[in-house]
TrEMBL record:
The keyword Manganese applies. A divalent metal cation binds at H31, D33, H64, D173. The gene is rpe. Substrate binds at S6, H64, G140, F141, G142, G143, D173, G174, G175, G195, S196. One of its GO terms (biological process) is pentose catabolic process. This is Ribulose-phosphate 3-epimerase. Gene3D superfamilies: Aldolase class I. It comes from the Bacteria. Its EC number is 5.1.3.1.
Length: 219
C-alpha cells in the first residue's frame, strides 16, 4: 500500500514545506495533478511547479495528465524523480502508442479512466501498463464526493489482473478519506491518492499517519 497525497490541495505559497511535512510523516509518492482547462474544466499547474520540488524531496512523482494531446507534453514531466506518468484513455486516440512513448523515457506508464468509462475500455492496454488509475470523482476539481461505482471497477481490475497473470498496480483518485479508504483497499486498490483529506487537515502529519495506520492494520 502506498499513499500519494495530491499537491493540488497543498498551499502553493509554501509548497516545499507542505511536501516536506508529508514526506517526514511517511507518505510514499507525490501525486501531481495537471489540468489544462480543455480536457477538464479547470487549470492547475505545469511541469515547472513539479520540477521546483526536485531535490527538495526524495519522494517520487506520480504524474496524472488530465490534458488533451498528452503526447506533446509527456517529455516535460520526465525527471529523475518521475516514477509514473498517467494519461487518460479518453484523451488518447492511440493509447498503446502513448503508453509505449512513456515507457521509452524510462518512466512507468499509467492509464486513467473517468467515472463514466468502463473497465472494458482498457482490456487491450492492461498488459502494457504499469498502473491503472480509477477516477472516483469527475476530474477537474478537488474536494468532490466519492462515486461508489469505483469500487466495482477496482474489483473488476483486480479480477482481470489475476485472470491474465498481469502485474499492473491499481490506483484510485477522488473523494478518498478515512471513512472509505479501507473499503477501496479491500476492493484491490494499492495506491491511494488523497488531496483535501490530507492537506486540508488541521494536523497534516497526523492525518498521513492515520492513513498509514489503516494500511498497516487492514485485515
Amino acid at each position: 500500500m502506498e499513499l500519494a497525497p495530491s499537491i493540488l490541495s497543498a498551499d502553493f505559497s509554501r509548497l516545499g514545506e507542505d511536501v516536506k511535512q508529508i514526506e517526514n510523516a511517511g507518505a510514499h509518492l507525490i501525486h501531481v495533478d495537471v489540468m489544462d482547462g480543455h480536457f477538464v474544466p479547470n487549470i492547475s499547474y505545469g511541469a515547472t511547479v513539479m520540477k521546483s520540488l526536485c531535490g527538495r524531496t526524495q519522494m517520487p512523482f506520480d504524474v496524472h495528465l488530465m490534458i488533451e494531446n498528452p503526447d506533446q507534453y509527456i517529455g516535460d514531466f520526465v525527471t529523475e524523480q518521475t516514477e509514473y506518468i498517467t494519461v487518460h484513455q479518453e484523451a488518447c486516440r492511440h493509447i498503446n502508442r502513448t503508453v509505449q512513448h512513456i515507457r521509452s523515457m524510462d518512466v512507468k506508464p499509467g492509464v486513467a479512466i473517468n467515472p463514466g468509462t468502463p473497465v472494458s475500455a482498457l482490456e487491450y492496454v492492461l498488459e502494457d501498463a504499469d498502473l491503472i488509475l480509477i477516477m472516483s470523482v469527475n476530474p477537474g476539481f478537488g474536494g468532490q464526493k466519492f462515486i461508489p461505482s469505483a469500487i466495482r471497477k477496482a474489483q473488476e481490475l483486480k479480477g482481470l489482473r489475476e485472470k491474465y497473470g498481469l502485474d499492473f498496480r491499481i490506483e484510485i483518485d477522488g473523494g478518498i478519506n478515512l471513512a472509505n479508504v479501507k473499503t477501496v483497499i479491500d476492493a484491490g486498490v494499492e495506491i491511494i491518492v488523497a488531496g483535501s483529506s490530507v492537506f486540508k487537515a488541521e494536523d497534516v502529519p497526523a492525518r498521513v499517519q492515520e492513513f498509514l495506520d489503516i494500511f498497516e492494520n487492514r485485515e
